[in-house]
Design a protein that fits this description.
536 residues; mainly alpha; two-stranded antiparallel sheet; 2 strands
């Protein structure tokens, strides 16, 4: 039988039906909802944990941000690479089960150290979801719908965050009121029960995700990607390339003594920066964790250049990718910071109870966040038909519009007005997410989407999650130590954070200068450094 006869007998692979694609999208949105319920619930529980465990605002910012973010971002790199090589729906399912268990165990914490350990576990588990889901959706839907679809998926951020705040606030108030005179089962208090209540259902959700069908990688763009013969062997290599001190051994094998020498210079630079930040801000654990994370990431990038030159070129030699991700990172800085501290802000400044603040802020995050993310994704795809600069241009518009809205929300003296302005601010301030994910995917080949998405997530977590909540908490703690009351100090810290939008706008302008040329030349640039591309 000739190869031509075989081609005639082998049916061409078919794109998944729109109905099933929408079903998968719906399930993955629910996964992201669980992701952010488990992540965001700490914000509404912060005041009770502070009183119960005796932790400071800066430590709470560390627990919500850095303890989670560093491990979430760092493990997202090798897991993102695994998503480019292995069955993505299985990866999501296993990760969901892991982070749900860690969330439930957070209810057993008896101090700062144990709660930090569980938050690290949540971060590692959750690092599986984003890269794998973004990659899957890129194969279920055509490129022209990319920002809309990824925005719909990313709306789970705000739905989950809203439900986390709402559910957490209701559980805390109802449980503590029911057992105000003691006698609670096993001596549990409200914040502990809240962790159990949101963590355990995720174990059942993980079984559902396991039943999804894996799409054909690259089919939507006509770029065939063969199955990797040994994905877990590669995972071991990628993990060794990012975990100190195994990074040195990995680089020695791949690049020799000169590469190791460069890596040691990177380590010294991170250590010097860490020392300087500790002198300025204090809180050694915050900056040591961040320095270790930065060193691990830079070491991995150094090794990626040797192991996979095409991916390195398209992700880390792309000016529009680097500038764009820094811009969106500063958007996340404000979003994560205000999102975490808003419940505490309403409790301190406007004298709201956990239940009141949780109900209104939870509904606001879910409804306004969904509106903003979904609408922003649709707007980004519409703009993409008009200009190749659409993704960074959308970020620029949203950054500039968010500054006056955020300032008005923080400064108003009326609690009703503050709730209304927070709703409007959330709609506008959340509209950038679809553009961010689409930009990361637009600039690479299908087999690189998991890695590009992991880089997007790393920037959002390092710049946004690790720095935003902590620095707002640090500034609040510093102002309070200087004599301001706790409400006023937090208000001023939130207001100061809006300056990050200016930094974001500058990076978006820089990204817009090169994005069109780099997107249109991605195949040629990859082939120039050894990529072999086969047509579907």
């Amino acid at each position: 039988m000739t190869s031509t006869d075989q081609d005639r007998q082998t049916p061409a692979p078919q794109a998944p039906s729109r109905r099933y694609s929408n079903y998968v999208l719906g399930v993955l949105v629910l996964v992201y909802v669980f992701n952010f319920i488990d992540r965001q619930i700490l914000s509404i529980l912060a005041e009770d944990i502070r009183n119960d465990l005796g932790v400071s605002d800066a430590q709470l910012g560390f627990l919500y941000g850095t303890a989670f973010a560093v491990f979430y971002a760092i493990f997202g790199i090798p897991i993102g690479r695994l998503a480019d090589m292995w069955t993505r729906k299985s990866l999501i399912s296993i990760g969901l089960a892991a982070w749900s268990l860690m969330t439930a165990l957070s209810g057993t914490a008896r101090g700062f150290a144990s709660l930090a350990a569980y938050r690290i576990g949540v971060g590692i588990g959750e690092s599986s979801a984003g890269p794998a889901a973004f990659s899957m959706l890129g194969d279920y839907y055509p490129p022209r719908l990319r920002a809309t679809v990824t925005a719909m998926y990313s709306s789970g951020v705000y739905i989950g965050a809203g439900l986390g705040i709402l559910i957490g606030g209701q559980i805390v108030d109802r449980w503590n009121n029911a057992f105000a005179d003691g006698g609670a089962p096993f001596g549990l208090v409200g914040w502990q029960v809240a962790f159990f209540a949101v963590g355990l259902p995720g174990l059942l959700m993980a079984i559902w995700v396991w039943t999804l069908r894996e799409p054909i990688r690259g089919l939507q763009e006509g770029i065939v990607t063969k199955d990797h013969p040994a994905p877990f062997k590669e995972l071991g290599k990628e993990t060794a390339a990012i975990l100190p001190p195994l990074t040195l051994l990995s680089l020695q094998r791949a690049g020799g003594a000169r590469t190791v020498a460069r890596n040691l210079l990177i380590a010294v630079g991170c250590a010097v920066a860490c020392f300087g930040l500790i002198q300025v801000f204090g809180n050694p654990v915050q900056w040591i964790a961040l320095a270790i994370g930065a060193y691990a990431f830079l070491s991995w990038v150094q090794g990626l250049k040797l192991r996979d030159r095409p991916t390195f070129e398209l992700v880390y030699r792309s000016r529009s990718m680097i500038y764009g991700m820094f811009g969106f990172g500063w958007m996340a800085f404000v979003g994560y910071g205000l999102g975490f501290w808003a419940p505490t802000f309403f409790r301190r400044v406007h004298d709201q109870s956990a239940g009141e603040a949780g109900l209104i802020l939870g509904l606001t995050a879910a409804v306004a966040g969904w509106m903003g993310v979904a609408g922003g994704g649709y707007f980004s795809d519409w703009m993409k038909q008009k200009t190749a600069k659409a993704r960074p241009l959308c970020g620029l518009i949203i950054a500039l519009a968010s500054i006056p809205l955020g300032a008005s929300f923080v400064l108003t003296e009326s609690v009703t007005t503050a709730y209304v302005l927070n709703f409007v601010y959330t709609v506008i301030g959340s509209a950038w997410i679809g553009s961010a994910v689409a930009l990361a995917n637009d600039l690479v080949l299908p087999r690189m989407r998991g890695t590009a998405s992991a880089f997007y997530i790393l920037m959002m977590t390092f710049v946004g999650l690790a720095l935003g909540p902590f620095l707002m908490g640090w500034l609040s703690t510093t102002l309070e130590a200087g004599g301001a009351d706790s409400g006023r100090s937090l208000q001023l810290a939130m207001l100061a954070s809006l300056g990050a939008y200016v930094l974001g706008a500058i990076f978006f302008w820089l990204a817009g200068r090169s994005v069109a040329a780099e997107e249109s030349s991605r195949i040629e640039r990859a082939q120039a450094v050894g990529e072999v591309i086969e047509a579907a």
